[in-house]
Specification:
The chain has one domain. Helix content is 22%, strand content 36%. It is built from one helix and five strands.
């Protein structure tokens, strides 16, 4: 089974989530977008899918933010 990746990215100067190539509605801050991504990934995990959250950095590299089954939910902070 493929892992579902919830990617937080800055798109057209707005924070959005990208899942399966589709952008979400914008979020006011990166923190809000990350929280929404973790919530969605957690729901995917509860439904039996392997899910994680990645955040795109300014250099277009990705950093791992949260993985279902490995990181606490809800995350601290």
């Amino acid at each position: 089974m493929a892992r579902i990746q919830h990617i937080v990215t800055l798109h057209n100067d707005e924070w959005t989530l990208v899942v399966n190539g589709k952008h979400s509605a914008p979020y006011a801050t990166q923190k809000e977008a990350i929280r929404a991504a973790v919530d969605a990934a957690h729901a995917d995990g509860k439904a039996g899918h392997d899910a994680q959250v990645l955040v795109q950095r300014e250099n277009h590299q990705f950093r791992m933010e949260w993985t279902y089954g490995h990181d606490p939910y809800p995350p601290a902070g």
